[in-house]
Amino acid sequence: MNLTLYVWRQKGPKDAGRLVRYEAKDVSPDMSFLEMLDLVNEGLVRKGDDPIAFDHDCREGICGMCAQVINGIPQGPQKKTTVCQLHMRHFKNGDTIYIEPLRARAFPVIRDLVVDRGSLDKIIQSGGYISAHTGGVPDGNAILIPKDDADRAMDAAECIGCGACVAACPNGSAMLFTAAKVTQLATLPQGRTEAARRVCVMTEEMLGQGFGNCGNHYECQAVCPKDIKVQFIAKLNREFIKARLK
Amino acid sequence: MLLPTSSVGRKLVMAATGQLIILFVILHVLGNATIYFGLLNAYAAHLHALPPLIWSFRIGLIILFSFHIYYGIVLTLENNRAKPQSYVMRNDLSATVAGRNMVWTGAVIGSFIIYHLLHFTVQITNPGLAAARHLDSLGRPDVFTMVVKSFQNFGIASVYLLSMIALWLHLSHGIQSSFQTWGLNSEQSFPIVKRLSALAAIVLFVAYVAVPVVIATGILK
Ligand code: HEM
Ligand code: FES
Question: Which ligand 2 atom lies nearest to the CA of residue A61?
Fold first, then answer.
């Protein structure tokens, strides 16, 4: 299949950047979206042009590096799927595709489609941990955890920190990300001890890093490749109220 | 603590003040309904016979609106700063026109409230109709005639209608949003809360525009 691409090209953080048109020829429907970009890049390199810079790592949907915005949708049009797992058979011959970097003040563009998502790490560093001395490996059933709680914590832990939620949010907020981390820890007994402090410092750090406030638009949930639900944001809000009432 | 600076804290102020203002919005529309039973002048006279009641409502509302407007503007500015560049190709999957324009529908409502107060409370926009200067046969300010003559003016009726559209949009996002902000959301309740909020916003809209519409169309004279 043949496609017309409009790709965001930006030489560096200071460059203004612009969309550049490329023709992607002889794309196989079995290619992943990243393989399609690889193909375009091979053509560019052959002509002596700069290849399109984009992030990727595992290419199997578990690391979150590959997030980019395809036709206005972070992580692409395929629901609950990362860009590396999106296949070209979901497009039609002759389609025009717009490819832009994740946009938010807290995600400065480094080059082309590559953005700096270090601000998410800063949120984790502020409180996304437990500081218990764990000692040796504990007995498997020493702490009993109800199945529902374990399941909820695991659902929250599915977040791969790709930043699609931030890019989709009209307010550039990282609430879904922060809520997933807060819920994951607050739902388990080991995480309860520091739950009150955690929810306060992590949301504080979120603002400090230049993210916006949640506007309850739920765009984040709609694009999340791991199906993280906005109910986790409600949980974060409850945790915050509990922390303040203490 | 008194003036929250945190993200969720300020959202909670928005939700709390918004919900309390909605309670007032409901009370107000119930009061409006007295017009269908010929009781509007009596209702108005009763209210004004109780200055402590009316003034505690006024002061309470001024406080609620001040917080709601202040944090609404602060949060919006902060949110716009956090998203300096939009997409060339934007594609909203769940964000709505109403949700994205809260500050604008809010601004319309705010401007409308000022006009509305000048119109029916201070009664200076149409001094010829001022109820304070026209008493009914029982010697009460003739609020009914002021309202009817106002809404027989197509321009005035349109201002009220358009403003209520803004209120509808504001609440169609705001009501469900305020429940989420309080953390009152589960996967089971979410679709129900969303639908009931949309319904409540429509019911309030219809209840409010009913008065200008029945008057402008000549049903109520
Ligand atoms: C009848 C009057 C009003 C009512 C009943 C009302 C109600 C509400 C409610 C329930 C919310 C949702 C709060 C939440 O997200 O948790 C809200 C949000 C909002 N309101 Fe109002 N409001 C009114 C007037 C205004 C006015 C005059 C403004 C002027 C600027 C305004 C600006 C906003 C903004 C910007 C938001 C969104 C805040 C955010 O991003 O979270 N509102 N309103
Ligand atoms: S490259 Fe790891 S999730 Fe796509």
Answer: 3
